[in-house]
Amino acid sequence: MTSLTSKESNQLSEETGLSKLSIQDWHKRFVQECPTGSISKERYINLYRSYYPRARNSDTYAQMLFTAFDDDRDQALNFREFLRVVAVSQGTDEKAKLELAYKAYNRNQSDANLTRKEIQNAVMAILNLVETKDDTDDNNDTDKRQTTIDWVMKRLGYEEKNEITKKEFIRRCKGDTNLYEFLAFHCVPKPNCSDGDLRGKEKYKITIKTGTEGKKLVLLKASGTDANVYLILHGEKANSGTIQLQNSQTHKDPFEHGHTDVFIQFLPSLGKIKGATLWHTGDKSQGWLVENLMITNEASNTTTYFPVQRWLDSDEYDKKTKVELIPNQPPGYDE
Known about the structure:
Number of helices: 11
Distance between the termini: 54 Å
CATH topology of the largest domain: Recoverin, domain 1
Largest sheet: 5 strands, antiparallel
CATH superfamily of the largest domain: EF-hand
Order of helices and strands: HHEHHEHHEHHEHHHEEEEEEEEE
CATH architecture of the largest domain: Orthogonal Bundle
């Protein structure tokens, strides 16, 4: 798979709204991780299984979305198709997210009406994705599922008809925040490691909150940073190695004032997290106030909390931009 030409980058930028620099970065990663030039359906489903390890069943939802993305229906996602996934998942265009969801729910028939049976299947697939294997499958659980299905059907207007148009689906979802949050397409797992690398690895969710306090010597409330941020997790079984925290799941521009950023990493089992090393490489103008750090192993459903509560700033306080962390203990400042 060759590098993108300037013409191809321009075309993809016009199609997706992503910057050419961002497209080049995504393409470089795509080539490294998908040397064949495409992501197979099987691999895409496996990515979902790894991304949602505690889900009851992620396969049906993954298959629905794969079908929606696979425009040429060759059972694989090429870079252009994958980039469209990235653009919609990272964007804020509600209509685009709903159009993609509609296309997925009626099996890539974007212009056909959405039937009662199709939306019922979609709701069940979503519930299987968001409910965990630990949830009991007793009568009460079945009643809850039916209640959710009935709620969706009513809000979409299926009480009066057996199918709805795409226009009506979008209108009703945009007019109902809860319905939108349940049905809209939001994010998908990125192929950040090869199929072989996924084996034996566990999904870790890294959550970092940037504080809201201004610097002592600056009047502006500049608690965020644009610097590169790195993390090492220290576990009983192993250490993670250096992780660069980029591609936040919650913000295009991470580590800004008051933001909570979430990052996903697939790592070998680290065991119980005993500590962490957090740092950035910014200069004096890029100090960063870190409120807290949370590490969740989604395979074992365990969370480790680090109350950082300090600046990483080469110009103030103890002038340190790197700090060693212990769970549940604020590190403070060196005298």
